[in-house]
Write a structure and sequence with these properties.
- About 15% of the residues lie in helices and about 40% in strands.
- The protein is of the alpha+beta class and about 200 residues long.
- The mean pLDDT is about 90.
């Protein structure tokens, strides 16, 4: 297993300031000095520090749930896994359960954290926590979506077909699918466990 180099010194921040801001985003400029003396200016989107969750919800051993929702960045509808920001004071699993209730109308009795992913770490300080959800039960909670999301049950055995879908392009969802499939294949008894 590869680890970070313990002697690698991160650059010194000489100055930092917000150079642009909108309702959702802050662009921060950093003046950096590297250990070899080189100085550079970097820009990054400053994250909220709260992180986000993406949930692969498994209603049974053969299926998982997807949603189709509008994506402003591409101005179209994308197929992906339920996701959302972690609210202040929430932990990852509480946020995952809340997002499931808001987006697909189910809660979960059991979660397994798979991996925390960086989103474009060269430009954005944000973390997406990928989790599996089991023992689903119906429970709807009011969310912030402007329209109802389309809920889609997908057969796990058709994951290759999902990867070919023209509206399944979000890298986080692709990573979640591959991580979930790897975990579920290595741990087939996970569906026999209970909360």
């Amino acid at each position: 297993m590869t680890q970070r180099h313990p002697n690698k010194q991160v650059p010194e921040i000489l100055a930092q300031e917000i150079v642009a801001q909108s309702r959702l985003f802050k662009i921060e400029q950093l003046q950096l000095r590297f250990s070899n003396g080189a100085e550079r200016t970097y820009e990054r989107m400053r994250g909220s520090g709260r992180g986000a969750v993406m949930i692969v919800a498994c209603p049974d051993p053969e299926h998982f749930y997807l949603i189709r929702e509008y994506s402003a960045g591409t101005h179209d509808y994308q197929l992906g896994f339920p996701k959302g920001l972690i609210d202040p004071g929430e932990d990852v699993l509480a946020a995952a359960n809340r997002e499931l209730k808001e987006e697909i109308g189910f809660g979960a009795g059991r979660f397994i954290a798979l991996k925390s992913l960086a989103l474009a770490p060269g430009y954005f300080n944000a973390t997406m926590h990928i989790v599996l959800a089991f023992d689903l039960y119906p429970e709807q909670q009011e969310g912030d979506e402007p329209e109802p999301l389309e809920l889609i049950s997908w057969a796990r055995g058709n994951s290759d077909l999902l990867l070919q879908q023209v509206d399944f392009t979000e890298a986080r969802s692709v990573a979640a699918l591959l991580l979930a499939q790897q975990y579920l294949e290595a741990n087939p008894d996970v569906f026999k466990q209970t909360a």
